[in-house]
């Protein structure tokens, strides 16, 4: 899927470029790894497939929320 979206700061982002990176759910939440570009939801927009590192659980997570989450170093 070839998609470019705009972040809240009006920056163009290729969601596929985020695959392989790790972020944290909020400031103190668990770390997750972005696995793949997912589907488009009418209510949540573009979803990304992520894996929660501590549990191994795989979930769909909105790209807009990913862009708000801090990068894990």
What is the alpha-carbon Rg in Å? 12 Å
Note the main sheet. Answer: 4 strands, antiparallel
Roughly how much helix do the residues carry, as a percent range? under 10%
What is the element string, with H for helices and E for strands? Answer: EEEEEEH
User: Helical stretch count?
Assistant: 1
Per CATH, which architecture? Roll
What is the CATH C level class, in words?
A: Mainly Beta
Gross geometry: globular
Please report which band the strand proportion falls in: under 5%, 5-15%, 15-25%, 25-35%, 35-45% or over 45%: 35-45%
Quaternary class: single chain
Explain this structure to me?
The chain is mainly β. The chain has one domain: SH3 type barrels (Roll). 8% of the residues lie in helices and 42% in strands. The chain contains one helix and six strands. The strands form two sheets. A four-stranded antiparallel β-sheet has the order 3-4-5-6. A two-stranded antiparallel sheet has the order 1-2. A hairpin with a 3-residue loop joins strand 4 and strand 5. The radius of gyration is 12 Å and the shape is globular. The model has no long low-confidence stretch (mean pLDDT 89).
């Amino acid at each position: 899927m070839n998609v470019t979206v705009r972040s809240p700061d009006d920056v163009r982002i290729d969601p596929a470029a985020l695959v392989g990176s790790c972020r944290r759910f909020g400031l103190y939440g668990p770390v997750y790894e972005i696995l793949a570009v997912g589907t488009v939801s009418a209510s949540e927009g573009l979803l990304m497939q992520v894996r929660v590192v501590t549990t191994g659980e795989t979930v769909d997570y909105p790209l807009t929320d990913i862009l708000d989450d801090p990068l894990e170093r």
